[in-house]
Amino acid sequence: MLQHLYEIKYNRLFIDHINQSNKYKFLDTLGIGSFGVAYLLQHKLTNKKYVLKRLRAKHKNKASTKYNFQQEIAFLQKEMHPNLPTVKEEGFVKGLPFYMMDFIEGHTFEHLIFNKGQTFSVHESLTLVKQLFEIVLTIHDHGIVHRDLRIPNILLHHNKLYVIDFGLACYMKESTNIDTIKNPKKAENYIIDLYYIGHFLLYLLYSNYTPHDKKERCWQEELQLPLYIQHYIERLLLIKRAFPDTRTAYEALPL
Ligand SMILES: Nc1ncnc2c1ncn2[C@@H]1O[C@H](COP(=O)(O)OP(=O)(O)OP(=O)(O)O)[C@@H](O)[C@H]1O
């Protein structure tokens, strides 16, 4: 209960901070995640939209979470790729850190698939994955892994793909032996991003799938993909021999 009130207090403080800035006005709350809260704002003169992301009040005194939040800002400030948001400002409101970034118009793939019912053919899906790879390759070239390439964190606008939310990103650990990775979702090297790219591809391909009977089968049976595409996804998901690096996986894309 106290935590809830604390959150409400900071919510009010941030909305007041935005509205009193003379530059921006508050438009909406975009999302409340486990670590952050994202607000949509608009520049009063240019009408351009921005996102202000702040740490959740409950993490105000947690050193590791605060460190991760600062690291998230630092990663975005590297401006690694034009299809990542650019940080405009950063600061604190009553001890709680925030940063402001460009608002990416368009929709997340979660919204496109589950709310709008958009479908993607095999060719369209692979073309989108190619775009995602091009962003991920650049991030990996900077020695960073995103670690959260899920459909709510990937957006589409005018057929261009964008990646947000570096909240779980970290510097790549090079020395891990790929064969000993037990849980790819916890990895701190390229494997975790390849694993999520494999899942992203499955979400796109499933958008076109209509079940024929009530029995649930494995994706290989349900999707009935050409074998070379199935094998490719199995390698991304570590069901088959892992790709030795991101570029090899990108170059092997069956497109
Ligand atoms: N730059 C942006 N452009 C457009 N929409 C954004 C942007 N950043 C965030 N959003 C939207 O706001 C929502 C919440 O943002 P974000 O994913 O960064 O934080 P979160 O997932 O709520 O928090 P956490 O970091 O704790 O997981 C996202 O689902 C996305 O729809």
UniProtKB/TrEMBL annotation:
Keywords of this entry: ATP-binding, Kinase, Nucleotide-binding, Serine/threonine-protein kinase, Transferase
Q: Which Pfam families match?
A: Pkinase
InterPro entries linked to this entry? Kinase-like_dom_sf, Prot_kinase_dom, Protein_kinase_ATP_BS, Tyr_kinase_cat_dom
Name the species this protein comes from. Peribacillus asahii
Coiled-coil region: none
The answer to whether the entry has keyword Transferase is: yes
Among SUPFAM superfamilies, the record links this protein to: Protein kinase-like (PK-like) (SSF56112)
Protein name, UniProt field: Serine/threonine protein kinase
User: What GO terms are given for molecular function?
Assistant: ATP binding; protein serine/threonine kinase activity; protein tyrosine kinase activity
This protein's record includes keyword Kinase: yes
The residue ranges of the Protein kinase domain are: 24-255
What top-level branch of life does the organism fall under? Bacteria
